Amino acid sequence: MSYNYYIAVASSFSVLLPLLLMVFSLHDQLQSPMRRALGILLLASGLSDAISYTLREMGQSNIVFINSYYIVQFLALSYIYSIIIPDKKWVYGGVILFTVFLGINILFIQSFTKFQGWMIFVEGIILLGYAGMSSLNFLQVAHLSITLLDRLAGWINLAVIFYFIPNLFLFLIRELMFPELDTDTARTYWSFHNCVNILKNILLALGIYYTTYTRLRRLKIFTYVMGRVSDDMAGQIPKQMAELDTITPDEWREWEQWKEERRKLLNQTKNIITGDSDRNYRKN
Questions:
Q1: Which has the higher per-residue pLDDT, 245 or 79?
Q2: CA distance 108 to 88
Q3: Which single residue of 3, 59, 82, 94 has CA 20 to 30 Å from 222?
Q4: Structural contact between residues 193 and 10, judged by C-beta atoms closer than 8 angstroms
Q5: What local confidence, expressed as pLDDT, does residue 278 receive?
Q6: Residue 58 has pLDDT above 80, yes or no
Q7: What DSSP assignment string belongs to 68-133?
Q8: 6-15, pLDDT tens digit by residue?
């Protein structure tokens, strides 16, 4: 068996990494609409790979299932970005544009029984546009205590960028230069795609692990969202994780301002109790 076969198998099984991490923390994941949508996307990816492999081994075409998966992928990611991006009209516009192009492509350019390369190309452009807008949104909170990788949305954004930028060129070159691939070229073509797909699933797995399991993550949830730490609030972690996934830059600024005001109030109270306020006043 060639290296292309092993890469294809690794790509198919790589989706189990993020999917199993979500299953093992099912209670936490179900608290967030974003995580539910990501779970549906990962499950669809796994089923698509399994069905496609079975049909290929049976000597039947799997193109329809591949095309269907890319539509599900676009809809799931569009829903996720409608949560991430504050101005939702851009996401709605992207969905309308994709739907119109899909209809035109099926009717006049490529039937649905053929590989929808142009559909995936347009899908990649729209999703990268979403990623660009969400990156600008992340930059608004870059100076605050929270970082991009503290949010599941940040990891999803990275996965979209690393998956679609190389595949954008891959699908464009295929449609313009190699519309009909011979067997060896097709295997090499899909091997490159499979490598990128493995990277995407690794990034999603890291994001789910980091934003769900790490102790630092849980501490930040209590510190930045709740504002204090206590044992009786441990049961509220899943709910606060969901809030942290969807919190906006303005809300983060409000939390930062609230923490700063709370810190100043505590210091003033301490100074009054210890008598330091009079000494500080005389120094000033």
A1: 79
A2: 30
A3: 82
A4: no
A5: 44
A6: yes
A7: HHHHHHHHHHHHHHHHH-S-THHHHHHHHHHHHHHHHIIIII--TTS--HHHHHHHHHHHHHHHHH
A8: 888 888 899 9
Long-range contacts of 143-151 (CB under 8 A, 24+ apart): 144/252, 144/253, 144/256, 145/220, 145/224, 145/256, 146/220, 146/224, 146/244, 146/252, 149/207, 149/210, 150/211, 150/217, 150/220, 150/244, 151/211, 151/244, 151/245, 151/247
Residue 1 has pLDDT above 80, yes or no: no
CA gap 37, 167 in Å, rounded: 23
Q: Which two tokens stand for residue 124?
A: 């990649």
- Please state, in angstroms and rounded to a whole number, the distance separating the CA atoms of residues 18 and 24: 10
For residue 45, what are the contacts with CB-CB under 8 A and spacing of at least 6?
A: 15, 69, 73
- What does the pLDDT look like over 149-160, one tens digit per residue? 777 888 999 999
Distance of CA 120 to the CA centre of its chain: 18
Please tell me the distance from the alpha carbon of residue 242 to that of residue 31, in angstroms, as a whole number.
Answer: 6
Q: Which residues, in sequence order, are CB contacts of 142 under 8 Å at separation 6+?
A: 148
- Residue 267 host element (H or E): helix 249-274
Looking at the whole model, is its pTM more than 0.85? no
* Cα(32)–Cα(22) distance, integer angstroms: 12
Number of H helices, E strands in the chain: 13, 0
Q: List CB contacts of 43: < 8 A, sequence separation 6 or more.
A: 19
Q: What gap in Å lies between CA 158 and CA 242, rounded to an integer?
A: 19
Phi-psi region for residue 111, left (φ > 0), alpha (ψ -120 to 50) or beta?
beta
Alpha-carbon gap, residue 37 to 45, rounded angstroms:
12
> Looking at residues 209-215, what average pLDDT do you find?
71
Structure tokens of 129? 């546009």
